[in-house]
Each structure stands twice: as C-alpha cells, then as structure tokens.
Design brief:
alpha/beta; 5-stranded mixed beta sheet; 4 helices
Length: 125
C-alpha cells in the first residue's frame, strides 16, 4: 500500500505490504494533483515500514516508469527505513533521480528526515 500526504509542499509516502499495480493506479493521479499545486521541484519523504514486502512485477515496472517520468520533480528525497531496504533502494534510485539529493535515515529519525528534506542543511548527514 502507498499512503501519501502533501505536508505543505513535502510529499510524504509511507510504503507497507506488497505494492501492486492498483496501488500505482490510485497514487499516480493523486501525485499529479499534488505536483500541480507546487511550483518547481518538491521535497519527498519516503517511509518504508517494517511491514513493507516489496513490489509485484507490475508495480515494480510502474515504479520505474514513474521514476523516469518524474526524475526531475524532486529537490531532496529522504528515505527512512530498515537498512536492507535502504541498500536496495539506493541501487535502484541512483540513476532515476539525478537532480535530487538523497539521504537515508534510520526508522527512529523521521523528524530529522522530514527537516532535512525540507532543506535544513544542518540535519543528520
């Protein structure tokens, strides 16, 4: 499941369970509406819950398509979650978001991740 929220210009995604094509069918139009309300590149916080179980094949394909289509849409991407998923996400996202600065945070560091994504330069490196 993809839960999403527009937190005053910060796109906050929470990923749980196994993502499906239907999740992307619901999320992509909502993302378009959120993006239309904001000028320029926006910050994003991606929270990977302990219940996250990856993507089915169709969802993985959609995720990669969206990554290519919106590769210049984000200024900063803060990833929060367990280390094994973060290592995998690093490899996957390296080429997808060339314009975005990315940082990874442990599950307990959600406040620091949110602040860093919004532009606080002095937050956790």
């Amino acid at each position: 499941m993809i839960h999403y929220d527009d937190e005053n210009g910060l796109l906050h995604l929470t990923l749980s369970g196994r993502l499906t094509t239907e999740d992307y069918d619901r999320f992509e139009p909502a993302f378009e509406r959120i993006r239309a309300r904001h000028e320029g590149r926006m910050p994003m916080l991606v929270e990977i819950t302990p219940e996250f179980d990856g993507w089915d094949v169709g969802a993985l394909w959609r995720d990669m398509q969206m990554g290519v289509e919106y590769r210049n849409a984000f200024s900063r991407i803060a990833m929060v979650g367990a280390q094994d998923w973060l290592d995998w996400a690093t490899r996957m996202a390296d080429g997808l978001f060339p314009q975005a600065e990315m940082r990874y945070f442990e599950p307990g560091d959600i406040a620091a991740a949110r602040a860093w994504a919004r532009g606080a330069a002095d937050m956790k490196e």
